[in-house]
Automatic annotation (TrEMBL):
Lineage of producing organism: Bacteria, Bacillati, Actinomycetota, Actinomycetes, Pseudonocardiales
Keyword set, alphabetical order: DNA-binding, Transcription, Transcription regulation
Organism field: Kutzneria kofuensis
Protein name: AcrR family transcriptional regulator
Coiled coil: none
HTH tetR-type domain segment(s): 4-64
Protein origin, superkingdom: Bacteria
DNA-binding region: 27-46
Amino acid sequence: MAGMVEQADVLAAAETLFYERGVQQVGMDQVRAAAGVSLKRLYQLFPSKDQLVLDYLAARDERWLASVREHALRAGNVLAVFDWLAEWFAEPDFRGCAFVNSFGELGGTSAAVADVARRHKEAFRQLIRDLVGDDELGDQITLLAEGAITMAAIGGSVEPARQARRAAEALLTLLDRPHQHGGLQ
């Protein structure tokens, strides 16, 4: 049990540091210090920094997608994804998409990181497709969300979420589609 707590502590420390500073700017000693474990214990839990990065991204993927999905299902409306994005963008530690950031840093040299980033983006796209019940429309709305994430990170504003929400709403209205989720339960 203590090992699982330590592992969770290390992952939480790594996530904070990697997201805030970038994966390449953070050494294992910094993760060790932030997590409060010895370097020996850190390497027992995560044999390499590469493994720690992959585990950090996997944990973030699971948590991020579950939160978006829950928010949209609770609202019963795909447009709620953009409301969730606006809340995320307003967080003081918002630094954009961790998967895009990690891909930008490591995607050219780490096939594993590139694969994790691609799988995350595909899972998000599939979530939106399921919410609207249409693949093409889901892809278009996904592009609006992805663009909003990038613009919010660069511009430091929540406004891209609002703009993308209005564009998605206009698209749904133009195509005479209900805003409620399609077949996702």
